[in-house]
Amino acid sequence: MRSFAVALILGSALALAGEAHAGAWCAWYDPYTYNCGFNSFQQCQATISGAGGYCAPNADQSQTAPGRRRR
After folding, report:
1. What mean pLDDT do residues 47-61 have?
2. Where does the pLDDT of residue 17 fall: very low under 50, low under 70, confident under 90, or very high at 90 and above?
């Protein structure tokens, strides 16, 4: 019963944590390894420096911010 309670608490914590925040830039190390947790191009460049790879805009994130409609 104790292990069930621990599992329930851990499962709830993971569910509440939700999806990780994806940034505007992704570091690509190879076709299958990438990290989209960067808010600026400079952060991405600093991460791949020495490790290789390249930085690209996150295609899954909307590039345009919602704005006000003009009349």
Report:
1. 92
2. very low
Q: How confident is the model at residue 41 (pLDDT cuts 50, 70, 90)?
A: very high
In the sheet with 25-30, reading across from the earlier edge strand, the strands are 33-38, 25-30, 54-57
Query: 55 lies in which domain range?
Result: 25-59
* Domain membership flag for residue 38: yes
Cα-based torsion angle of the residue sequence 39, 54, 49, 38 in order, rounded to the nearest 10 degrees: 10
More confident residue, 9 or 17: 9
Number of structural domains (the chain) is 1
Assigned token pair, 42: 């400079």
Rounded to 10 degrees, the C-alpha dihedral 59/65/24/10 comes to: -100
DSSP state of 69: P
- The answer as to whether 6 is a domain residue is no
